[in-house]
Design a protein that fits this description.
Blueprint: H1 3-11, E1 17-22, E2 28-31, H2 33-39, H3 48-51, H4 57-67, E3 69-76, E4 83-94, E5 97-106, H5 108-145, H6 148-157, E6 163-175, H7 178-184, H8 187-207, E7 211-216, E8 219-224, H9 233-252, E9 261-275, E10 281-285, H10 287-296, E11 303-307, H11 311-314, E12 318-328, E13 332-341, H12 343-349
Parallel strand pairs: 9-11
Antiparallel strand pairs: 1-2, 1-5, 3-4, 4-5, 6-8, 6-9, 7-8, 9-10, 11-13, 12-13
């Protein structure tokens, strides 16, 4: 390469630091202003190793001989700010003199932008993970408010279409003298007791395929046969009811307050839907729910009352006592029966 060609290359390298050193003794024979600003003025006897002391010249020579070019990065601090300089070193021969051509480019801004992008990417990833966790928390909350199939419909379409279920069964429970207990007890104790009991009821309901719909004060409502149809919905709610009683009997043996419950069962049709726009609540309405609420009144403490219409579904598994015909408000005259654990169910209940 001629001197004229080198000068032409240098003119094209405006904004790039350029230096030329002899390969034989590494003495600098040329550097432009940009190179001087970054690495300082190199005197006539300055060597490339003096100007770039952190540069591995053996690795440079090997790379230039094998690949024709050496590339790398170095960090310098000419003033207060640390600069990142990209190096590109190649070889040339002028009048039988072998030279190193050193090209330098300030890539500090590029590295800063890359760092900013990395930080932004990390922030986005972190926010995405937080959004996913928040989404999971919201999903768990909504699944506590409504059955999964209803939640999936709500998530997909944004609304839930009211559904009529023609054949379901309902279990409704409330506690004897709860108002008096709540008035005389610390609210924290009352809520702690209810939370303990209703958590156990939820486990029992899930075990028998029932869906807890809601609790209102001391009232507990669960259904079977909706939103997923079930042919043994009557046995499911009856199993829940006798297990609720068994659980309270065992709990009362080791707790100071003795909880006594009345339970009513109902069967028939019901409508299920999400109620509300800003505060979502999944609720059920209809004859089956009304029947369970009405029959609960006819139950003695720690007993379960059901309509005679459920007899055929329960007679083989439960102990049934006829309670005769009663006039049910809003429903009319109906034969009722008391539902208790059968021999096999009683044996299993003792293991609960």
């Amino acid at each position: 390469m001629s001197i004229a060609a080198i000068n032409e290359q240098l003119l094209r390298s405006i904004g790039v630091g350029v230096a030329i050193a002899r390969r034989s003794d590494l003495r600098m024979i040329f550097h432009n202003q940009a190179f001087s600003e970054w690495f300082g003025e190199a005197g006539g006897e300055a060597a490339l190793s003096d100007v770039l002391p952190d540069l591995d010249l053996a690795a440079v020579s090997q790379a230039v001989d094998e690949a024709g070019r050496y590339t790398g990065e170095i960090s310098i601090k000419p003033k207060r700010r640390i600069l990142v300089i990209a190096l590109s070193i190649s070889s040339a021969t002028v009048e039988d003199e072998r030279l190193f051509i050193v090209e330098c480019q300030n890539i500090t801004r590029i590295r800063e932008l890359e760092s900013m992008i990395d930080s932004y990417s990390t922030m986005v990833e972190r926010n995405t993970r937080e959004l996913e966790r928040e989404k999971e928390r919201v999903e768990r909350l909504l699944l506590n408010l409504m059955p999964r199939s209803v939640y999936e419909e709500f998530k997909t379409f944004g609304v839930v279409t009211p559904q009529l279920y023609k054949d379901v069964s309902v279990v409704m429970l409330d506690f004897v003298d709860f108002t008096k207990f709540a008035a005389e007890s610390d609210p924290t104790i009352t809520l702690g007791e209810l939370n303990d009991i209703f958590t156990a009821f939820d486990r029992i309901s899930e075990q028998y395929g029932c869906e807890r719909i809601k609790t209102i004060g001391d009232a507990y409502l669960a259904v079977a046969g909706m939103p997923e149809p079930s042919h043994d919905h009557a046995r499911a709610v009856a199993n829940c009811a006798v297990r609720f009683i068994r659980y309270l009997e065992r709990r009362n043996q080791s707790h100071p307050h003795k909880w006594l419950a009345r339970i009513g069962l109902g069967t028939g049709a019901a409508v299920g839907s999400v109620v509300g726009i800003q505060k979502y609540v999944y609720d059920v309405f209809g004859p089956a729910v009304n029947m369970a609420a009405r029959l609960q009144v006819f139950a003695e403490p720690m007993t379960v009352v059901a309509p005679d219409d459920m007899k055929e579904a329960l007679v083989e598994e439960f102990h049934l006592d006829d309670l005769g015909r009663h006039d049910i408000r809003g429903i009319g005259e109906m034969r009722l029966m008391r539902v208790g654990a059968g021999i096999e169910l009683a044996r299993k209940s003792r293991q609960f």
